[in-house]
Amino acid sequence: MKVAIRVPGKLYLAGEYAVVEAGYPAVIAALNQTICVTMESAETGTIFSSQNPQLLVDWTRKNAKIHCHTSHPYALIESAMQTTEDYLALQRVEANVLYKLSISSELDNEQTGQKYGLGSSGAVTVAVVQAVLTFFGQDARPDLVYKLSVLAQVSLGIKGSFGDIAASSFGGVIAYHSVDRSWLFEKMAQLNISELIEQPWAGLAIESLDLPRHVEMMVGWTGAAASTADLVSHVQGHLNEAEKEVAYQGFLAASRVCVEQLIAACRLDDAQKFQLAISENRALLRQFAEDMEMVIETETLETLCRIAERYQAAAKSSGAGGGDCGICFVEKAEQKEAIIAAWAQEKIQVLPLSIAARQ
C-alpha cells in the first residue's frame, strides 16, 4: 500500500494580524508550490524529510500511541500522525500497519533551504493528516483535514489563526474567519476528537473565492524570512498598554471593513475595488506597525510596493511581514514586465507562483 499526497503552500492577500482574533476575516491564496508526503507500508515505521537527509527516525506503536525511538525535530509530524490515528480509532478504523512516511518540500529555496514564508508548517500538517486518512482508506475531505490539522497543532501549543491550514486544506483563494480558540479549548476538554470534528466550530467560516478577471498576482521575494509566531507574540506583548489596546481595536475594526470590501470585490468581479482594498490594507498594516512599534514592511518591502505603485499596481507585504514576500496585482502584461525589471534592479526575486486549484 502506497499513497502520495501534494498539498499547496499559502500567501495572505489581506487580513493578516487581525484574523488571529475570532470574527475578523482574511483572504488567503493557496499556491502551486507544494509539500509532498508519501506513505507506504513497511516492517519498520520511519519518518524522513528531505530537509534532514541524514536523519531517519524509527517509530512504532505502544498502546495505540506512536513512539519514536530517538529524539527528533518532527514533533509536528508526529502530532499530525497521532491526532489522525486517534480519530480513526474512534471511527473503528484500526491503524495496524506500520508505514514509512517521507516528506519533500517545494516551499523553500532548493539550493539554500531558505524559507520563503509560504506556510510550510501548515502545509506539512495538512499533508500528513491527508496522507494518513488516505492510507487507511478514508475520505480526506477538506473540512475534516482542516479540523484534524488544527487539533494537531493546538496539542503542541501552536498559536495563530490556522489560516495557513485552511488554505492548504481547501486550495484556491479563500475568505477565512478563524475558529474561536476559547470555544475550541473548552470543547477539547469536553469531547473526544470524533465528537469535536462533527461539531460546527464557533467562529469558523471558509468560503472559496475567485480573483477578479484580468487581475494577476505577482510575488516578490525580498531575501529575508520572518516568523509569524514571533511577530504575533510581539503584538500580544504590547496589548496591556491602554493606548495600544485602543489602536489595536481600531485596527481590527478597520481591517474587517477593508477585507470585507476585498471579498465583495471578488464576488462582484470588480478589479478596481479589489486594487483599492489591497492598497487600503497596506496602509492599515503600516499604521498598525507604527502604533505597535514593530516592523512589518521592511525597507525592501517598501521598495517592492513603491515600484508596483509606480506602474499603477496595488501591492503590500504578505503575512507576518518583517521580510519574506510582498505581493502585487497587475492587469496588463506591460505592467508586469516593467515591475519585474524594476524589482530585479533592487535584487527582489520574482517567485514563479500561481494560485493552486481548489481541493
TrEMBL record:
<dbReference type="InterPro" id="IPR014721">
    <property type="entry name" value="Ribsml_uS5_D2-typ_fold_subgr"/>
</dbReference>
<feature type="domain" description="GHMP kinase C-terminal">
    <location>
        <begin position="264"/>
        <end position="345"/>
    </location>
</feature>
<dbReference type="InterPro" id="IPR035102">
    <property type="entry name" value="Phosphomevalonate_kinase"/>
</dbReference>
<dbReference type="InterPro" id="IPR013750">
    <property type="entry name" value="GHMP_kinase_C_dom"/>
</dbReference>
<protein>
    <recommendedName>
        <fullName>phosphomevalonate kinase</fullName>
        <ecNumber>2.7.4.2</ecNumber>
    </recommendedName>
</protein>
<keyword id="KW-0418">Kinase</keyword>
<keyword id="KW-0067">ATP-binding</keyword>
<dbReference type="InterPro" id="IPR005917">
    <property type="entry name" value="Pmev_kinase_bact"/>
</dbReference>
<keyword id="KW-0808">Transferase</keyword>
<keyword id="KW-0547">Nucleotide-binding</keyword>
<dbReference type="GO" id="GO:0004631">
    <property type="term" value="F:phosphomevalonate kinase activity"/>
</dbReference>
<dbReference type="Pfam" id="PF08544">
    <property type="entry name" value="GHMP_kinases_C"/>
</dbReference>
<comment type="pathway">
    <text>Isoprenoid biosynthesis; isopentenyl diphosphate biosynthesis via mevalonate pathway; isopentenyl diphosphate from (R)-mevalonate: step 2/3.</text>
</comment>
<dbReference type="Pfam" id="PF00288">
    <property type="entry name" value="GHMP_kinases_N"/>
</dbReference>
<dbReference type="InterPro" id="IPR006204">
    <property type="entry name" value="GHMP_kinase_N_dom"/>
</dbReference>
<feature type="domain" description="GHMP kinase N-terminal">
    <location>
        <begin position="99"/>
        <end position="172"/>
    </location>
</feature>
<dbReference type="InterPro" id="IPR036554">
    <property type="entry name" value="GHMP_kinase_C_sf"/>
</dbReference>
<dbReference type="InterPro" id="IPR020568">
    <property type="entry name" value="Ribosomal_Su5_D2-typ_SF"/>
</dbReference>
